[in-house]
């Protein structure tokens, strides 16, 4: 038994967290480019424009500094502008991935490298050529690119001038972008995903909307669902032998007690992700969500064939991130702990990471079983990993046994899900296979990778790459197809 012979072992990154070169070769700005540096004790801050064009800052940030240009202020550090400079280091980095034995590399295309404002008719050739070069480098080593079409980075122009995804026009802009990259890369990319962690798209930062009320948010999400469905249909037409999936953040939840109220609360929590999966995998709005819309007075404006579009654009597989589990209770006095895009209730039976995220390897097996039992499509773990402070020694080594222990227990849970529960699992691409800017806090010191990048929280230092102890460990895991994990 064990993993399939063509199991996609690899690693995952996102353009806005690694590429840098935010203003080179015609690339346009995205909402993610307006995020300042932060840390686990000091949240990141955002500069945004109102629909009237006034530049403002999110709470905790002072007035716009003198000399600010658009959304980008001088003397303020924006980590995405630097990343780890993958733009200039991609050959070196992909060679290291190949040395580990990667079968797949999950990455994203920056929409604004292809269409700088998001709504142009003609693409930016320099942006297209960059990804040609990246894909060619992967394929040279037998690494399959697994490409996310939109990883949180909505074009800034669309946020400013269209109120982001609240405008139905953005569907057409996105599908034009998708058609462009499908045609360009149809012979190079066979695995695609539409929107990263679609169930956490909820604000100006991720989808460019200026109001966060339920009506605006769910109308915008309806447009996102339609765009995803249209992308799936286009992909099937243009690249018939490709697979295209969705991507959700999945954190299984346990009822805190056997009280019926806690069990019901747990069902409500699970529906927060099942709603997105039901639409993208089953192709329709579930009854429980329609009832919720009735209670909240939410009325989704739909055109005649919208529901047919959703039904015709269901995904081939489910991609998901798994970092933690949570608990559900009606007792609001229970303490909470940070997590991936959420605050979760603290589980007294589990430990937490340096950043407070619950550590629950068995929860990954539970997540796999829950999704496969409900949806019966292949699953792909496209993010999983441990953010920690690593120490680069004088001899260039990094001893990260804690990361090896974390990954070992999670891969064991994956194997049990396959062998004991019959889950159809396509692959595993741990998050931040090379150190990158942490999305949640904007830090470099919160590191995930098998490869250490010598960059600090202010985008300084040598940018040299160093192999961590986990590099050799993961190399052995892949070489044995998951049989050697100790």
From TrEMBL:
First-tier enzyme category under EC: hydrolase
Keywords: Glycosidase, Hydrolase
UniProt xrefs under Gene3D superfamilies: Glycosidases
The organism's place on the tree of life at top rank: Bacteria
EC number: 3.2.1.86
Molecular function GO labels: 6-phospho-beta-glucosidase activity
Active site: 383 (nucleophile)
Family stated for the protein in its record: Belongs to the glycosyl hydrolase 1 family.
UniProt xrefs under PANTHER family: 6-PHOSPHO-BETA-GLUCOSIDASE ASCB-RELATED, GLYCOSYL HYDROLASE
Protein name from the UniProt record: 6-phospho-beta-glucosidase
